[in-house]
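Hi V.,

You were right to ask for the full record rather than a summary. Here it is.
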Amino acid sequence: MMRFTFTAIILAALVMPGAALAERKLPYWASISAGKARMRSGPGRQFPATWMYQRVGLPVKVLEIYPNWRKIEDPDGTTGWVQGNLLSDNRTAIVMGGIHEMRGAADASAPVVWRAEPGVVGALTQCDRGWCLFDVKGRTGYIEIAHIWGAKPDERLP
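Predicted structure:
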């Protein structure tokens, strides 16, 4: 009886993550969690690597799920497959275009607290009505969603 219970627990632990992922609505946002993450042309190590990401926190959009692999799109529009364990659910975004102002409140008339250059990556903790709270290594401010890649234009985060 004890052996059966232990085996059942192990099997449940292995099946549960897959079930949870199957319920996740695609596409969804994630970020690179490893210092080096290879993008491949297909969902397996036998497929050739097409790119090497070396930027922890880079936002990506997950387009497809295949057991331990995720088809992603990066901020430049490049798509390919990465191992799922190289991604994090931590929400990040990257500044696109020119230099954009980060404000003290989610309002175009609020004081400017920082300016962010193109390519700057930061954490997203809140988004509402076209603005996101953007944290770049402890420097926080609100930035318009239109100036970042990593959130949908109408997205709302808690």
